[in-house]
Amino acid sequence: MLTFLSAIGAVFLGFLAATGRIVMFAGLALATAFTPPFYLRAVLREMVTIGYFSLPVVGLTAIFTGMVLALQSHTGFARFSAEGAVATVVVLSVTRELGPVIAALMVAGRVGAAMAAEIGTMRVTDQIDALTTLSTDPLRYLVLPRLLAGIITMPMLVVVADIIGVFGGYLVGVYKLDFNPQTYLDGTRQHLETTDVVSGLVKAAVFGFMIALMGCYHGYYSRGGAQGVGQATTYAVVSASVLILVVDYLITAAFFGR
Amino acid sequence: MTNADPAPKISVRGLRKSFGRNRVLDGLEIDCDSRESLVIIGGSGTGKSVLIKCILGLLHPEAGSICIDGVETVGLRRADRERLLQKFGMLFQGGALFDSLSVWENVAFGLIQGRSMERQTAKEIALAKLAAVGLGPEVGELRPAELSGGMQKRVALARAIAAEPEIIFFDEPTTGLDPIMADVINDLIVKCVREVGTTAVSITHDMVSARKIADRIAMLHEGRIVWHGPTEEIARSGNPFVDQFINGRAEGPIRMETRAA
Hints:
The structure holds 2 protein chains of 2 kinds.
Chain A: H1 2-31, H2 40-50, H3 55-77, H4 86-124, H5 127-133, H6 138-175, H7 181-190, H8 194-220, H9 225-256
Helix pairs in contact in A: 2-6, 3-4, 3-6, 4-6, 4-7, 4-8, 4-9, 6-7, 6-8, 8-9
Chain B: E1 10-19, E2 22-32, E3 37-41, H1 48-56, E4 63-68, E5 71-72, H2 78-84, E6 88-91, H3 103-114, H4 119-132, H5 137-140, H6 149-162, E7 167-171, H7 179-196, E8 199-204, H8 207-213, E9 216-221, E10 224-230, H9 240-247
Parallel strand pairs in B: 3-8, 3-9, 6-7, 7-8
Antiparallel strand pairs in B: 1-2, 1-4, 4-5, 9-10
Helix pairs in contact in B: 3-4, 3-6, 4-6, 6-7
């Protein structure tokens, strides 16, 4: 029994220590934002990588999410003769939840993994030590631009995902479920409030930060050659995905909880 | 040392560094004078790279003192460390060239990012340094992945000397190269060190390289310097560790850890 409890304690202490290390890492990286030099070109380059190159995968997942949502909610609501609520359910679900979460999970898989692999390879081939010896702070040069790009770009990406997702719902609603186009659009606009969109964008900014943080952190501390880099990539994607879902609940509770 | 003697360029005293239970450096002491070329030899895993990383501040020792120009550097704050690092150049064992940048951008990196130099001026200096290591300007536009191992080593050497540092560290400069390319690198190191007048600390297993580039050789074993002296005296050091190492004998006081042992 004592062994079992001590094992639980060890896991809990390990979790707290890891959380502390990640918070310290993020704090040290963000602190470099307040003193020169500033690497604006690096921020722009990362914004293109995170935002522009993620558009196809985010757009594709968003449109199918909106389409499935319209189809499912119509099937369910038909049991209560509430088919008229389909447009409202689609727009609220997409802007509040599915837009930010699905886009973030896609970006975590695509960009978080790439960040961990790139920085991890730089670590195991001494390139990060080389940066230090060339009087360049790796946190300022490698990590901060990615964190800032994540925070700035994810909300932009989610705006696009929201529009495409709602459009997916419209396509199914009008062309498959035979809604009147104007009625569907009215249903979309009628109950949508600014808070719905803003909460989704706040989530997006936080998710962007967490994806970049997990990618950079696990890459930065990777060890042991190719195997270590592979592990860092896995940890980056898994930890970012879990955090996205946990923080999604917390932000939702903060905005809409009673 | 008398009061009239200048402080050594690098002075290491009582340096200790462990990884878990494995004590790598155990009270290591060594000096390196200004403009001297010191080569540290020793078997794999004896802590040669760890010593250099401690001096550069990439690793933090548990105890001991590291003075550069008579100034203590252990425990320096981040900003002071960045300033101190402007005195250093480093040639990493694997080159450690930045994959995402072109060759000339690699060479000019410390000038542009570390010293805020204009890109065009830095590029001219980078191309001059590439020429100094025998590489033409066309190489400057290539990516590191497009170069052979020997060329990558030369680019790394050009990057190490680009900012004309006061102290250069060479980590296994000839490892993985054929004997002819190794000799080319040795010649370049000697030329660069002599021309720029820097202090050089190299670590190597390669005795041909050590004899060529060193003014003084030190032998590291089990975390301590077990012998040091002028290069020409190493053959008659009378030290059993040195004799075994330079003659490459399996039998002797140095025991290699093997599964069968």
